[in-house]
Amino acid sequence: MKFAHFTQTFPREGETAAQRFDLLWRELELCDETGFDYGFSSVHHFSRLRPTATAFCAAAAARTSRLRLGPMGYAVPLYDPIRIVEEVAILDNITHGRMEVGLASGVTPEEFRVYGGDWDNSHELATEALSLLRKAFTSNKPFDFQGPFHQYQRVPLSVEPLQQPHPPIWLLSLKPDQLKAAAQEGAHTGYLFFRPRQDAAAYIQDYVQLWRENGHQHAPNVSYVAFVYVDETDEAAVAHGAGPIIDSMMTIYGRGLGLDPSPEQEYHNMGPNRDGDQGRAFGHDSIDNQKWLDFEYLHENDLVFVGSPETVAEKLKSAAKEGLFNVFCGEFNVGSLPEDDLMRSIRLFGTKVIPAIGEFDPVEDTLRQMAGT
Question: What is the mean pLDDT of residues 131-156?
Fold first, then answer.
């Protein structure tokens, strides 16, 4: 397995944006020292302090030397995708070949309203961007591209990525058509903890089979995003982590669950999940959404990972096997967690959890089973 520090960078009480970002860089510096593989950031607009992909990757690269860095991911319909191509090439050089590229369909209608994004065709636009990136970085220059939504002629890219032919690409979705395209193009994928792991595993199983049929020489990465807090004992972890995690649930996901008292409706008109889309509606038909703000419910069902290093390692290994993922994206900075507690959690995860389960890879195991080896 591999492990990522994942941030949504919401403001903490009493801090300026500058102070909050300074804390984020300290978090990533510690992750860089303690064995994490990735530093990932969500990218949204008009909510929280989420940085742009360029700001996050460039600033994080200046403060780390090992971590692979990337947006998870670009909300593709909000951009002219040729801009993403240019940014990726530049950022891969700025990070000295540590860039990872996440592509997403987008989940917040408010962003689409302001940017004039195409909500109805958002999945198709994200898939088209995957094809564009591959074409741009594997063709002679200048290159042409003919897609269903964008067409370009004689594009003269002035900078090539440092990684050849291009940085790893992730198409973040459980939608079958997008998983099929990802498997064909050799793109990684992932999902959020709101999606039931057994349900997600069925989609991922098909994706891994398609990946194998397309002859890729390495296993795909499948990410899973969830809150995590590690402390010296299970009792200390619950005592220190429960409140901040519920605060983050409300702050980040409350509107999507219909539980935020704020009149602003960031997730209005979301409707039910659409064919494997993990982000546009968070609630499960069989679960009262209020339970997503019940720490005992989240804790008992391993929807958050809170405990001693031994407990968290055991729970993560079980969840990865059930959900068929091999990259855990932990969101460590939850609520108004004091910095001492936050850094202790990251350090314990890096020095004790990662070594305990780093050799376990259920996706690789599945590929071997499919190959009969």
Answer: 97
Residue 209 has pLDDT above 50, yes or no: yes
Mean pLDDT is highest, among 7-16, 45-54, 127-136, 253-262, for 127-136
Per-residue pLDDT averaged across 324-349, rounded? 97
Q: Residue 328 — φ and ψ, nearest 5°?
A: -95, 120
User: Which tens digits make up the pLDDT trace of 22-47?
Assistant: 999 999 999 999 999 999 998 877 76
Q: At what angle do helices 53-63 and 17-33 cross, to 10 degrees?
A: 50
DSSP state of 99: B
Do 57 and 119 contact (CB within 8 A), yes or no?
no
- The sign one gets for the Cα dihedral 249, 252, 256, 261 is positive
H or E element, residue 207: helix 197-213
Question: Are the C-beta atoms of residues 359 and 36 closer than 8 Å to each other?
Answer: no
- pTM above 0.85? yes
CA nearest to 314, candidates 230, 198, 205: 230
Sole residue written with tokens 């990757």: 57
Quote the CA–CA distance of 297 and 284 in Å, as a whole number: 14
Phi-psi region of 258 (alpha: psi -120 to 50; beta: other; left: phi over 0): left
Say which residue the tokens 């008009």 belong to: 46
CB 182, CB 123: distance < 8 Å:
no
CA distance 174 to 183: 12
Distance from C-alpha of 101 to C-alpha of 274, rounded to nearest angstrom: 24
